[in-house]
Amino acid sequence: MLSRQRQRAAVEPLDARSDLADEQALHEPERTVVRLDVAHALRRLNDSERLVILLRYEQGFSHPQIARRLEIPEATARVRLHRAQKRLRSLLEESS
Q1: Dihedral, CA atoms, 84, 90, 95, 96, nearest 10 degrees?
Q2: SS3 content of the chain, % helix, strand, coil (to 5)
Q3: What is d(CA 93, CA 72) in angstroms, rounded to the nearest whole number?
């Protein structure tokens, strides 16, 4: 979801600012609900799951950077991130 928002922001033309603002205003309540759902799901993750998710998506760390930060092998970092993503996805589906 975060990467989709970044991609969308990168491809929108600058001359469509008023149209863009109108479009964003229309979807703001929906985005607020999604943000609340994500925040709630993140709180339900355990500390290690939450940490790898935040390092990857909030801090933009790569797998090798996550591994160095957590002082674990890169393969372990990949597995932990994959499992945390799977659990987060499951929690978000529960809230839908």
Answers
A1: 130
A2: 85, 0, 15
A3: 30
Q: Which domains does the chain have, with CATH numbers?
A: 21-95 (1.10.10.10)
Residue ranges of the chain with pLDDT lower than 50?
Answer: none
- 58: Cβ–Cβ under 8 A, 6 or more apart, which residues? none
pLDDT of residue 8: 55
Helices (H), 12-46: 17-44
Q: Are 9 and 16 in contact (CB under 8 A)?
A: no
Tell me how far apart the alpha carbons of residues 74 and 42 are, in angstroms, rounded to a whole number: 23
* CA 64-65-66 angle, 5° bins: 90
User: Distance between CA 5 and CA 27 in Å, rounded?
Assistant: 13
Residue with tokens 């991609």: 7
The pTM is what?
0.67
Contact 63, 81 (CB under 8 A): yes
